[in-house]
Amino acid sequence: MVVNVATRLLQISEIFGPTIQGEGLLIGKPTVFVRTGGCDYRCSWCDSLYAVLPEHKSEWRSQSAEEVFAEVQRLSNFQPILVTLSGGNPAIQPLSDLITLGHASGYTFAIETQGSVAQPWFAELDYLTLSPKPPSSRQVTRWDRLERCLEIASHGQNGRTVHTCLKVVVFDEEDYAYARDIAARYPDQPLYLQAGNHTPPHLAEKIDITGILERMDWLIQRTIEDQWYTVTILPQLHTLLWGNKRGV
Ligand SMILES: C[S@@+](CC[C@H](N)C(=O)[O-])C[C@H]1O[C@@H](n2cnc3c(N)ncnc32)[C@H](O)[C@@H]1O
Ligand SMILES: Nc1nc2[nH]cc(C(=O)O)c2c(=O)[nH]1
Ligand code: SF4
Ligand SMILES: [Mg+2]
């Protein structure tokens, strides 16, 4: 049988760390990021367009799982660490081999994805963060696909539990209503509300931390007003610390 090796290569935008996970369920945890290139979405406020738009393709590299894992091991000084797969949409890449390789050496794997593409290998992950996009992103949620992601994760492979959660970026009242809808649809999933950064690299020269914190304050008041006590509200910690800097 002829195996097309190229189809197993990963499109890699950047590999960096260790740093801390700045968002959601694993906020504050030391991690190495593997950021893949290419995305099926075009969120109006995306903070990682260099890993999304085809005009940045020449900056990405095609690498095997072995090459990516060697870089992860080098960065982590061969100490098992949490590896966070992000992008772009990492769900459009063949990441199963990387997860298998890493698990064999004690590494754990989390993914950040919008839930628009469900892959069988989600069952091999340790953490699956689904981040469906609210109206301000100008993207349309495919609920059937989001549900398929959760369904796959509910059958963890090799006795593994895939810890799942939902994370919704909120900029305004419409986004907040979308987040409420998500909570009603998936009452058993931990839900994180993430204050939006309205000054990502392509929309402003300087990051407006005060503006981000004001939105965060509004979001907290808004949830308390609704007596919505099961939700968790967070900023992007890395954005507060390091602004729009890349590779942190
Ligand atoms: C860059 S995305 C990559 C992974 C995947 N495509 C996704 O959207 O989940 C990682 C996380 O950053 C969030 N994000 C992107 N731009 C943002 C912004 N301007 N403010 C707040 N969060 C943002 C996304 O919603 C997602 O949760
Ligand atoms: N420190 C840090 N935390 C993050 N959490 C999610 C990120 C991402 O871009 O997916 C990210 C990132 O780029 N840096
Ligand atoms: S889905 Fe994620 S990577 Fe893709 S455009 Fe939206 S925020 Fe950016
Ligand atoms: Mg980011």
UniProtKB/TrEMBL annotation:
Reaction(s) catalysed by this chain, per the record, are: 6-carboxy-5,6,7,8-tetrahydropterin + H(+) = 7-carboxy-7-carbaguanine + NH4(+)
Give the InterPro entries listed for this entry. 7-CO-7-deazaguanine_synth-like, Aldolase_TIM, Deazaguanine_synth, rSAM, rSAM_sf
Name the pathway it acts in: Purine metabolism; 7-cyano-7-deazaguanine biosynthesis
Question: Residues that bind substrate, according to the entry?
Answer: I20, Q21, G22, R35, S86
Residue ranges annotated for the Radical SAM core domain, each copy included: 26-244
Q: Name one GO molecular function term.
A: 4 iron, 4 sulfur cluster binding
Q: What keywords appear on the UniProt entry?
A: 4Fe-4S, Iron, Iron-sulfur, Lyase, Magnesium, Metal-binding, Queuosine biosynthesis, S-adenosyl-L-methionine
- Cofactor(s) needed for function: [4Fe-4S] cluster; S-adenosyl-L-methionine; Mg(2+)
Where [4Fe-4S] cluster is bound, by residue? C39, C43, C46
Cofactor: record remark = Binds 1 [4Fe-4S] cluster. The cluster is coordinated with 3 cysteines and an exchangeable S-adenosyl-L-methionine.
Residues binding S-adenosyl-L-methionine are: W45, C46, D47, G88, S131, P132, K133
Q: What does this protein do?
A: Catalyzes the complex heterocyclic radical-mediated conversion of 6-carboxy-5,6,7,8-tetrahydropterin (CPH4) to 7-carboxy-7-deazaguanine (CDG), a step common to the biosynthetic pathways of all 7-deazapurine-containing compounds.
Assembly information from the UniProt record: Homodimer.
Family as reported in the entry's similarity comment:
Belongs to the radical SAM superfamily. 7-carboxy-7-deazaguanine synthase family.
Q: What is this protein called?
A: 7-carboxy-7-deazaguanine synthase
Recall the taxonomic lineage recorded for the source organism: Bacteria, Bacillati, Chloroflexota, Ktedonobacteria, Ktedonobacterales
